[in-house]
Amino acid sequence: MVVIGGGPAGLAAALRARDCGVKRIVVLERADTLGGILEQCIHTGFGLHYFGEELSGPEYAHRFIELLQKTDITVMTDTMVIGIDKNRVVTAVSPEHGLMKIEAKAVVLAMGCRERPRGALAIAGSRPAGIMTAGTAQKYVNLDGYMPGKKVVILGSGDIGLIMARRMTLEGAEVKMVCELMPFSGGLTRNIVQCLDDFNIPLRLSCTVIKTHGRERLEGVTVANVNERFEVVPGTEEFVECDTLLLSVGLIPENELTKELGIALDSVTGGPIVDEMRQTEFEGVFACGNVLQVHDLVDYVTLEAQLAGEGAANYILGNNQAEKVYVRPECGLGVRYLVPQKINIKNHRDVKLYFRVNAIYKNARVVLEVDGTVISNKRKVKLAPGEMEDVLLKAEVLAAMREDSRVLVRVDV
Amino acid sequence: MAKEMTCVSCPLGCLLTVVFEDGKALSVTGNSCKRGIAYAETEMTNPTRMLTTTVKVRGGVLPVLPVKSDKPVPKSRMFECMRVINAVVLDAPVHIGDVVIKDILGTGIDVIATNDMTSV
Ligand SMILES: Cc1cc2nc3c(=O)[nH]c(=O)nc-3n(C[C@H](O)[C@H](O)[C@H](O)COP(=O)(O)OP(=O)(O)OC[C@H]3O[C@@H](n4cnc5c(N)ncnc54)[C@H](O)[C@@H]3O)c2cc1C
Ligand code: SF4
Q1: Which of these three, A195, A220, A249, is where a domain ends?
Q2: What is the pTM (predicted TM-score) of this model?
């Protein structure tokens, strides 16, 4: 089994596959250390569900790295996967071993995601130094010990941007504001409270950066309000002096390798379409973590990766590979996407359906319906697009389903 | 009187409703676990937060090491703590869990390493 990516997803998938009896497992990681993005997420807030403790990113990763080191799972760092072919031959390069080809029975994709760069945005102005993604700034500050600026504006209220607002404030920078195009934040509420409110950093909703100023180094930005159609409201333009603009405008699953294999991607999640064991539409290829859907909680990444690890193990060992009958759960009112996109009703086990809503709802209900019958109906004080939700489809409900059964998840207001 | 606040003790971020009198919480609702009640109570009297930052390292594979306070720090003393932490320089190697600063500012709170740092 080959695992591509040594972040929390790859680590958990490898460990679970080992527990399920897979003998030869190799984890390929392009960075020089394991842990993935967690190595630079030095704030706490990881592991409360999984470990019942609040850990920092490196501490969370460390727990899994330690477990891995106790096994004979092969780890190759500084190793970048550059291709997978139709026979599941994985091609990778490393300074130490050069070009390698590994024949895999099963492949687990765990490449994580990357940040949407500035090019994806339409902002006027030249390209002075001082404009970077929030994740790049996070790496500079937390791994390289280098502060990229003193007066900061953040565009986008994703979690990385919010975390960096606090981080740079603590290190003495002045964070002038966080501008968010949408009328709501894409980040966790707790991060708005403890990263912005705690330091009196204003969050400007329905607001964006329309121009950057400065030639060599950023000298300021023009911000403006937008209406419901995201058009600039004339007269609201305002110059804000700053030497740094951080972009936190979304994450994109890193699916170049997946696409090369011709695996179908979900147009909403940007990740591959998978079944309840996280198998993609290419047999023997599984996906988990941020490459599948952008997660806000690493605990869920771990759980998802364990499913993928078990799925890959079953595939390799020939367990549960009998006839598969798939139903495709549907997104009802208020639901943007569902993962997994398909469920094998012959696999009698509890299936959690993960989803995100399309707007903020207060005092709403999450309803799960099978063939028109309400299976569960849970009240939620608050639902927000920035927070992943889940509903449980129990094994006994699944067992009673037919191939033409309809599963629907919707929000009732 | 009643007040709404978001519990920041974990990423679930429950929306709490706190009924209070004279700055003391009388009842808390909306929490999904016990920690929410404790959070509301301290938030009404002495708000605290976990402090995470980095410390300079000499002779390590990286120039800085991540650290955290082993207990939440009073919000009002965050920047004072930062000044103390930023004045420290450690020598590699350092191990995850090592105490980097003991009893910072006499608060009874230790600052501990949250990653390993091997030496070059
Ligand atoms: C700034 C930030 C703050 C967060 N805050 C929290 C929080 O407070 N609490 C919480 O629970 N979660 C938080 N998260 C979410 C959580 O950390 C992520 O969801 C999780 O790390 C994703 O794990 P992953 O393994 O899928 O991806 P990653 O951690 O990104 O790992 C992917 C790995 O794959 C490697 N890779 C990619 N392509 C290749 C290739 N071709 N060949 C070889 N290797 C490759 C990469 O180098 C990387 O190491 C945060 C995330 C970020 C970015
Ligand atoms: S009340 Fe409990 S579950 Fe809810 S945010 Fe606080 S710590 Fe998390």
Answers
A1: A249
A2: 0.92
